[in-house]
Amino acid sequence: MLQMGRILVTGSSEGLGLEAARQLVQRGHTVYLHARNERRALDARSACPGAAGVLTADLSNLAETRKLAEEANALGDFDAIIHNAGMLNGPFRKTPDTGMPAIAAVNVLAPYVLSCLLRPPKRIVYIASQLHRQADTSAEDVFWFKRGEAEFRDFPAYCDSKFHVILLANAVARRFKNTSVSSVHPGWIATKLGGRGAPDSLEDGVATYVMLAEGCDAPNQPGRYFDPKKKVGMPLAATADIPLQEKLVKACEEVTGLTLPV
């Protein structure tokens, strides 16, 4: 019999995050949403009225991301956390407290901060992408401090960020022995992020989210990566490189001053 859980889904005011939250609510779980600002929070409440609450934080802002962790911890322990919030494109958009582009802050630094500060749940799901295969796999200049705005291009930045988030997931998996950790490529879906021409269905992507949030999958093992429709996938071999994982972790530590718990 399925046990009901407490689940937090970041970036759940629209798209995949919202649909995953809706389905989890329909299945009887206690689900907390997350939105970037109050206007989006109101939209999320309307779109998913059965949710237990909505947390508000701009994940491109380090201070707001810390605040989100504090507010989530105050709610109690979670059974699952889905790090769904993400950015695909747009200008450099220098963040106010770190000076990095918003894509790197939201896609990589925010899940790192939340992984450091949130009490470890039973299950963590990091949202990756098949586009990690087009990344620069050196993990150099993760946050664009050396290259700067003049050299910034959003598509390579996105590809790199999704490679980095898989490195992060695998680093967390090695540390959190009592937590099932997965990274997921949900598919190329016609959401605001994916664009109208995307060929995959929302249902196929969300099915994997729901399965992993509920823990109805294969036994935990480091480096787990899923494709759409609940299929076990095979990420780039470099994502299993432990020194590379630790290089990414160190870059995050240097910016935040936070250390992943063991």
Strands, helices and their partners?
Elements: E1 6-9, H1 15-26, E2 30-35, H2 38-47, E3 53-56, H3 62-74, E4 80-83, H4 102-117, E5 123-127, H5 148-151, H6 154-175, E6 180-184, H7 202-214, E7 224-227, E8 231-232, H8 242-256
Parallel strand pairs: 1-2, 1-4, 2-3, 4-5, 5-6, 6-7
Antiparallel strand pairs: 7-8
Helix pairs in contact: 1-7, 3-4, 4-6, 6-8
Strand content: 5-15%
- Main sheet: strand order: 3-2-1-4-5-6-7-8
User: How many DSSP H or I helices?
Assistant: 8
Rg result: 17 Å
Q: Main β-sheet, in a few words?
A: 8 strands, mixed
Kindly report the CATH topology.
Rossmann fold
**Approximately how much helix is present in the residues?**
40-55%
Per DSSP E runs of 2 or more residues, the count of β-strands stands at 8
Describe this structure in words.
This protein is an alpha/beta fold and 262 residues long. The chain has a single domain (6-256), classed as Rossmann fold. It contains eight helices and eight strands; from the N terminus they run βαβαβαβαβααβαββα. Strands 3-2-1-4-5-6-7-8 form an eight-stranded mixed beta sheet, sandwiched between helices. β2 (30-35), α2 and β3 form a beta-alpha-beta unit. α1 (15-26) packs across α7 (202-214), α4 (102-117) runs parallel beside α6 (154-175) and α6 (154-175) packs across α8 (242-256). The longest helix is centred in the middle third of the chain and has 22 residues, at 154-175. It starts with 5 loop residues before the first strand and ends in a 6-residue tail after the last helix. InterPro entries: NAD(P)-bd_dom_sf, SDR_fam. Keywords: NADP, Oxidoreductase. One of its GO terms (molecular function) is oxidoreductase activity.
